[in-house]
Amino acid sequence: MIYTVTLNPSIDYVVKLDDLKKGDINRTVEEYVYPGGKGINVSLILKELGYESCALGFVSGFTGVYIQSILSEKNLKSDFINLENGFTRINVKVKSKEETEINGQGPHICEEKLNMLYEKIDKLNSDDILVLAGSIPSTLDERLYENIMARIQNKNIKVIVDATKKLLLNVLKYKPFLIKPNNNELEEMFNVKLESIDDVVFYGNKLKEMGAQNVLVSMGKDGALLITKDNQILRSNVGRGIVKNSVGAGDSMVAGFIGGYLKNHKYEEALSLGAASGSATAFSYDLATNDFIKIIKSEIKIETLN
Ligand SMILES: Nc1ncnc2c1ncn2[C@@H]1O[C@H](COP(=O)(O)OP(=O)(O)OP(=O)(O)O)[C@@H](O)[C@H]1O
Ligand SMILES: O=P(O)(O)OC[C@@]1(O)O[C@H](CO)[C@@H](O)[C@@H]1O
């Protein structure tokens, strides 16, 4: 079974404006609400691709009720822990001449509730896949993903981590199967400016030396670079289309990678389906559909750089 963990889910309130004026009243031309949070997005795309998963994490308040109801309407398996405080955050995604996001902090998670999550994680079996994705509420310890990985280190569980800065760096010693920073996050982690694809390879390799088995660096409209466990360096292009809402493109890429890998254990296929899923979501208001992913996949080319 594939499990996704979203410690800090969200409702994504996507608004389209002609022009965003700071300090003024802005009126939307279109608006949408979607259940969000990185792990939940991964589960939703996995479902599109025909893979069952179970979404774990914390929900709270009226927004938490909404998320659970939408996921159950979509027949997505979930096993969330209800917090008795606060409410699941609402993240505002403004689509105007550029994309602007306001992500909430999310409710506090007390130790008792955190232990309930650990108990669920402890029940995972070998050969399960675990996706740890997204930020954690600011009141929690930055070693949280590391603590989860420590608990399961002796089981043969493939762990995929999509997080930033210390949250990601701290898990590397437990050898996650895959990490997926984007190019900006890679720059932040090493405090450098990436000037070329060679730079991306260089710093991606550093994450590998620090313990990651496979490193996938997504680069938005510039595609993605994968450094595999066996040191192959693969690069993907992107599909052709008009960007509608790139929120969730990275999560779609992670889901596509997992789906592609499970198909035949070939990294080319994993990267190709990952890239197609990422682009297809960027070209949709909501997350991509399987039909659209298939169309975009025919435009994806994988190049070997070494
Ligand atoms: N503008 C775009 N045009 C085509 N494809 C895109 C575009 N943006 C993203 N993608 C596809 O999606 C993949 C992941 O995108 P990106 O690098 O933006 O991830 P991310 O920063 O983790 O995204 P997010 O946090 O919004 O989910 C890219 O590698 C690419 O394949
Ligand atoms: O604040 P985080 O957890 O880093 O990111 C949350 C978020 O931006 O990530 C998803 C897209 O990747 C959205 O659905 C959600 O709003």
Automatic annotation (TrEMBL):
SUPFAM superfamilies: Ribokinase-like (SSF53613). Keywords: ATP-binding, Kinase, Lactose metabolism, Nucleotide-binding, Transferase. Signal peptide: none annotated. The keyword ATP-binding applies. Pfam families: PfkB (PF00294). Its EC number is 2.7.1.144. This is Tagatose-6-phosphate kinase. It comes from Romboutsia sedimentorum. The lineage of its organism: Bacteria, Bacillati, Bacillota, Clostridia, Peptostreptococcales.
